[in-house]
Each structure stands twice: as structure tokens, then as C-alpha cells.
Design a protein that fits this description.
The structure is a homodimer. Chain A has two domains: 73 residues, Arc Repressor Mutant, subunit A, CATH 1.10.10.10; 142 residues, Four Helix Bundle (Hemerythrin (Met), subunit A) (Up-down Bundle). In chain A, a hairpin with a 6-residue loop joins β2 and β3. The first copy, chain A, is mainly alpha-helical. In chain A, 72% of the residues lie in helices and 3% in strands. In chain A, α4 runs antiparallel to α10. Chain A is globular and about 55 Å long. A three-stranded antiparallel sheet of chain A has the order 1-3-2. The first copy, chain A, binds a DNA duplex through α1 and α3.
DNA sequence: TATTTAGAAATTGTCGGACAATTTCTCCGT
DNA sequence: ACGGAGAAATTGTCCGACAATTTCTAAATA
């Protein structure tokens, strides 16, 4: 029954898909790990077809890599790939922040971002990776939603942000070098309603993130 | 045998996937059309599982929309969706053009973009939608490749550009209001190696495209 | 005639089994 | 320790089946 309902919510593939993403954040799966279809079939108690569909969704979003006749594996990014991703995120997040600032007065937007920011700042003081990661994702999601560009909202999850988070979870220095004040600055600029300023704040933040990552040892990267 | 080889090239799902994208450009499939799994199974002579996998890939890239227990249908965008997409493409293409200009001197990059541009300008004088569409896609693809950002290259196909092309294929005004000189300007800026200029040229082009689309009648849009 | 509605048909969601193709593992001889 | 042949594991793909749901059809009703 429970399984039936969960499945109907958005299908067995969705269950597997979310299970794996969640498992990633929880550390159940780590970069480089093989994902054997038979195991997943057993773990999630669904047919192989559904597992396959979930895997191809994950591959489409870049979380895993698949090649013919080889097991899917959780991707881990090289230095170059990370640099590329950060550069892209700078552009995308800058765009998102600008849109959000420009539309801060519409509807309940101001309240939405207020709440998301409060939750984020609150989560910041705690030391729970999972809790903070959720709050941060929610903050960005809200920012994008307020911006009101549906295509941006569709594209954002297709970037490899999740992979980025997970790959460097062990290195607190990344987050710590970035956290203090950055999110606050982005929020302030958005609340102020000045698009250009919000874009700059978001870009600065991402650039600082990139710098922190650059200082990481080779062991943190693939290949 | 032939089928076997094609399948092994990158799998049956890939055959179906490419077949549908190609069919879109050829007009075999039009926005709003239902894609019934059984039909595709027959048309492409593959199992339903493979059809399903191809469909979910197409859905991930936004070309079709799927909801539970309902046939997949070729998406067609509303005015708002198109506006959002154009805004996103402006940012993305601007970024791509800037990167390309900055790396024009590396390797064989200059020759690559030279060739792609020549092919594009040549295709422009002809009046063959398919031929021109291919050349344009190749040009953009080259531009992105030269830029060297793999994440951008991964994301670009996930935008709904294909849908955009197809949806307005009947309205030459869109292309005509844009073509003359625009691609040339982008190319020149890239060849000059000035990132900022290339970004501006690309953005101007997309903005002009958006303006042309704005002038289209309601009949060209969904919903 | 237009509208509603019950039943039939079509379609999707999912599972299990099957088998070939390929990769990965294991063990043996050198 | 090393390389290679055979065994085991794993993926790629198809087929058939059946429940859940939507879509179509045609009769019943206002």
C-alpha cells in the first residue's frame, strides 16, 4: 500500500531517482561508487526497467556516468570540470539573482525570500551538513522561483551543483571560506531590489567559492 | 545486421531519440502531436523499454512533456515560455561567445570557427530550412566547443533551442529579421579575440531574435 | 439537438523472464 | 609476480503480462 502510493506519486523510477540523490547527500553513495542494477532493484524493490529509467535520468543530469556494458558510477569531477562548472554557475546564479531583485515587489516574493534567508542563516550556525545543504538548496530554489524564469528553473537542476556539494563535503574550509556574510549580501541586494547589485553579489560569492575550491588538495578531485 | 550495428553504435534508445529529434526538424512530428509508445515501437522496430528510455531522455531535455498515464506530446511553448527561454539564451550565448573569443588563439580554434562560419553564411543564401538549421546548430556548437567549458557544452542541449527552431519554422520573418549580418558580427568579434565585444554581439543577436518573435501572431504559440 | 454518462478500447506503468554481448573476476600455468 | 583462459557477473534488449488510468464511443437523458 505504502509502496503503491509512493510509486503512484510519480512512479517507481522517481522513487529510485530520489532515493539515490538522497543517498548521495547522506553519504550512502560516494563518488566513484558503482551502481549495479540488480542491487538497486533489490534495495528499492522495483523492476529493472524502473531502475534503468532512474539511472538514465541521473545520467542526463550528470550525477552518474554510464558507458556501454559498464555499471553506472557516481561521477566525481576533475579540477577542470569543477572550474568549468563554477564559471557556469557564476553566470547562471548572477542571472537568477538579478531577476529575483527585479521582481522582489511582486506577489509574496519578499516574504518568500525573507523566510528562505532566515532558515538559511539559522542553519548556518549549526554544523549539520545535511540540514545546511537543504536550507541552501531551498534558498537558491526560492531565488530562482522569484525570478520567474521557468526555463532557468528547468535548467538549474541540470547543472552539477549536487555533485559539487557532495564531492567537497569533507572539506569544511570550502564552506567556511564562503559562508560568512555572503548569503546575507546576496539577500540584502535582492531585498533592495537592485538587479545589478544582486547579480554582482551572487557572482562574487561564486567566485569566492571557486577560489576556496582551488586551494583544495588534489585528493579532492578525480583524474 | 544493419539494425544490430546501429543499435550497438549507442543503443536502441539512441536510435529512437535521434529519430524523433530528426523527425522534428523534418516536420514529421509537430508540436502538440501525441507520441504513442506502440507506434514508436513499430516505427523504429525496437522494444517498448527502449522507446520509453528515449522518451524520458527527450522529456529531460524538454522536447516533449510527459504526465502520468498520458501519452507523451511534442511540447509547444507559450509566449511566456518563449520569452523566458530567450532571456536565458541571451545569457548563455553571451557567455559562450565571450569564452570563444578569449580562446580564439588556442589550437586550431580559429580555423574551426572560420569553417563553421563559412558554412553558415553559405547556407544562409539558400532557402532550405533543414540545411540552414544544421549549419546554425553546427556554428553554435563550434562556438561552445572553442570556449572549452564542458559544463556549458553539457547544458546547452538541455535548453529548448530545438523547440524554438521548430515552433517558428513557418515564420520566415523571424529568421529574416535576424540573419542579415548578425552571425557575421558575432564571428568578427570572436575572431578579433575581444571577449566583451563577442558577448555583446551575441546578446544583441538574441535580443533581436526575441523582438522578432514578439511580433508574431498568437497563433504561433501555445496556450 | 445538446449533454451526460456508462461501458469499451486504447494507452501507460510496471513487473518478470529470457538471452546475447560484453565486461569483470578468478584461478592456473609460467 | 604476471599474463591469459575460462567462469561469473553485468548490462542491453526484447517479449509477454496485467493493473491503473485515460480516452474514445455510443447509448440514455434532458
Amino acid at each position: 500500500m505504502t509502496k503503491q502510493q509512493a510509486a503512484l506519486a510519480d512512479g517507481s523510477p522517481g522513487v529510485v531517482y530520489r532515493g539515490i540523490v538522497d543517498g548521495l547527500y547522506r553519504g550512502r553513495y560516494v563518488p566513484g561508487q558503482r551502481l549495479v542494477e540488480a542491487d538497486l532493484t533489490r534495495d528499492f524493490d522495483v523492476g529493472r526497467g524502473s531502475v534503468r529509467e532512474a539511472l538514465s535520468r541521473l545520467a542526463a543530469e550528470g550525477l552518474i556516468s554510464m558507458s556501454l556494458h559498464r555499471s553506472a558510477i557516481i561521477r566525481s569531477m576533475s579540477r577542470v570540470e569543477v572550474r568549468d562548472l563554477v564559471a557556469l554557475l557564476e553566470v547562471l546564479n548572477g542571472f537568477a539573482a538579478r531577476l529575483a531583485a527585479d521582481r522582489i515587489e511582486e506577489g509574496a516574493n519578499r516574504k518568500l525570500i525573507d523566510d528562505a534567508c532566515a532558515t538559511l542563516l539559522d542553519a548556518e550556525v549549526q554544523r549539520d551538513f545535511l540540514h545546511f545543504a537543504r536550507a541552501r538548496n531551498a534558498f537558491y530554489k526560492t531565488m530562482v522561483a522569484i525570478g520567474g524564469n521557468h526555463e532557468l528553473a528547468r535548467i538549474m537542476p541540470r547543472t552539477n551543483v549536487d555533485l559539487l556539494r557532495v564531492q567537497f563535503r569533507a572539506y569544511q574550509t570550502v564552506d567556511e571560506g564562503v559562508r560568512i556574510g555572503d548569503y546575507r549580501a546576496i539577500y540584502d541586494a535582492i531585498a533592495e531590489g537592485v538587479g545589478r547589485k544582486a547579480e554582482a553579489a551572487a557572482k562574487t560569492h561564486i567566485r569566492r567559492l571557486g577560489d576556496a575550491i582551488d586551494r583544495l588538495p588534489d585528493a579532492a578531485f578525480a583524474g
